[in-house]
Design goal:
The chain is an alpha/beta fold and about 525 residues long. It has 4 domains: about 280 residues, TIM Barrel, CATH 3.20.20; about 30 residues, no CATH class; about 60 residues; about 120 residues, Alpha-isopropylmalate synthase LeuA, regulatory domain (Double Stranded RNA Binding Domain, 2-Layer Sandwich), CATH 3.30.160. The strands form 4 sheets. It has an 8-stranded parallel beta barrel, surrounded by 7 helices. Bound molecules: 3-methyl-2-oxobutanoic acid and zinc ion (ZN). 3-methyl-2-oxobutanoic acid binds next to strand 5 and strand 6.
Length: about 525
């Protein structure tokens, strides 16, 4: 193991993260986030699992072609087809990595793979060697390592290193381990696997017991020098290690972590977290460490008193250090194009990737409708535009009647392809009426699983941000829409979800989930 103090950040938001229910992303969404991850300074972006579907393949290829700086990684089982497909998707990357994995715990080998330990060892050698035929940057993971026999793990790691793996990742696939046990396992492997110090030792934790971040940090103290993690901790089941928490723990407690640090530009953490929330339509809880609404809010009088005397009484890091300024009034209706363009860039968007004139007109309408326009409003506006590509369904017009004496009804004009049609429906409430009309006009029949409204900023004129979860033929998607009128925001969110369902159909849904 190198004795340096640099900890690599391997971001798997676009692979393990998107495997969480409702978090799947299409190519445009992955590209938007991958660019922000590059800006954040992550070392590796795991962009997907190319064999899983045509959509996953294309997303990894697009990220490999268009995102520069980080190593771009694709996941593969030990099968030849998986490895060849990953290599093809990564062909145009500046630096590409193939991540090969196979399960090594008794339960996975017996009940999932139907293989004995000897066969698994052969697969490790064969898979890693094949991947080495494409690139020198190979990561190997023994899936469910923390429930595997430790002596067998030593053999597996030896095989992977002999076959040419340059990174050895030890996954806690089911979130089962504890900080002390995981640290002991890392120390044991370092002591028992010959030549392991020439490779980079990596950790990958799931949060089933709420220990993913603690386990990852304990492993760093034991010598691991790569952490696999996701923004906001999204991922399978209870999620993965939250990147922002690991990064800020190392930075806040350097003496405890013996100077170990990452190259993350911490002021990009909050914009990245917000961007992910916008893209997948899932908000973090208010008390989420580092990025939750309340993470830096002080309510109790005694705390406020202390803060006024000296911020360090109750604040171990500043909101500014993670990119959270006070929610400021950014622009008004008299602001011009230059000011708007500057602000968009400050918020982390690339003005060349957006239709600037359309965004500016959107901003002007918003500034007319609202007294104050905040950063969050602009983020919502731009993300909304970036995600509205290839729309099969578009809202043309909406009018709603409701009130204490009226039967709620909605008249919707919807463009489907090139045709515009109109329909009026009554419902249990105005939102129900809007959704019924849109559903019938779209000719689809998804089930509404969840409807959520959130105010983007405070104040009576705040924009409503609606997220809608739809399910159709086992595909589940989340649509988002923002507007000062929550019925329009609801219609936009429903239509956004319908467009995502249509896109999934076109791209071919994933066949291989649940890694
Ligand atoms: O949790 C896990 O084991 C994984 C592997 C593919 C690294 O995601
Ligand atoms: Zn995982």
């Amino acid at each position: 193991m190198r004795d340096d103090s640099r900890v690599l950040i391997f971001d798997t938001t676009l692979r393990d993260g998107e495997q969480a229910p409702g978090c799947s992303m299409n190519i445009e969404e992955k590209l938007i986030l991958a660019r922000q991850l590059a800006k954040l300074g992550v070392d590796v972006i795991e962009a997907g699992f190319p064999i899983a579907s045509q959509g996953d393949f294309e997303a990894v290829r697009a990220v490999a072609r268009e995102v520069h700086g980080p190593v771009i990684c694709g996941l593969a089982r030990t099968q030849n087809d998986d490895i060849d497909r990953a290599a093809e998707a990564l062909r145009d990357a500046e630096r590409g990595r193939i991540h090969v994995f196979i399960a090594t715990s008794e339960i996975h080998m017996r009940d999932k793979l139907g293989m004995g330990p000897d066969r698994v060892l052969e697969e490790v050698s064969r898979g890693v060697e094949r991947a080495r035929g494409y690139t020198e940057d190979i990561e190997f993971s023994p899936e469910d390592a923390t429930r595997s026999d430790w002596e067998f793990l030593v053999q597996v790691c030896r095989r992977a290193l002999e076959a040419g793996a340059s990174t050895l990742n030890i996954p806690d696939t089911v979130g089962y381990t504890t900080p002390q046990e995981y640290a002991d396992l890392i120390a044991y492997l370092r002591a028992q696997v010959p030549g392991i110090d020439a490779a980079r030792l990596s950790v990958h934790c799931h949060d089933d017991l709420g220990l993913a971040v603690a386990n990852s940090l304990a492993a760093i103290r034991s010598g691991a020098r790569q952490v696999e993690c996701t923004l906001n901790g999204i991922g399978e089941r209870a999620g993965n290690t939250a990147m922002e928490e690991v990064v800020m723990a190392l930075r806040t407690r350097p003496e405890f972590y013996e100077g170990c640090d990452t190259r993350i530009e911490a002021r990009e953490i909050y914009p990245a977290s917000r961007m992910l929330q916008q893209v997948i339509g899932i908000n973090v809880p208010p008390n989420k460490a580092i990025v939750g609404d309340n993470a830096f809010a002080h309510e109790a009088g005694i705390h406020q008193h202390g803060m006024l005397q000296n911020k360090l009484t109750y604040e171990i890091m500043t909101p500014e250090s993670v990119g959270r300024g006070a929610t400021e009034l950014v622009l008004g209706k008299h602001s011009g194009r230059h000011a708007f363009a500057d602000r968009i860039r400050e918020l982390g968007f690339d003005t060349e990737k957006i239709d600037f004139e359309r965004a500016f007109q959107g901003f002007k309408s918003l500034a007319d409708a609202k007294k104050t326009v905040y950063n969050e409003d602009i983020e919502a506006l731009i993300t909304d535009q970036l995600l509205q590509v290839d729309q099969r369904f578009k809202l043309v017009n909406l009018s709603v009647v409701c009130g204490t004496l009226a039967t709620p009804s909605a008249t919707v004009e919807l463009q489907v392809g090139d045709e515009v049609s109109k329909l009026a429906r009554v419902g249990d409430g105005p939102v129900d009426a809007v959704f019924q009309a849109i559903r019938e006009l779209s000719g689809r029949n998804p089930r509404l699983l969840r409807y959520h409204v959130n105010a983007i900023t405070s104040g009576i004129d705040a924009q409503g941000e609606v997220s809608v979860t739809l399910e159709e033929d086992e595909a589940r998607v989340i649509g988002k829409g923002a507007d000062t009128d929550i019925l329009i925001a609801s219609a936009k969110a429903y239509i956004h979800a319908l467009n995502k369902l249509a896109r999934r159909e076109d791209a071919g849904a994933s066949q291989l989930r649940g890694v």
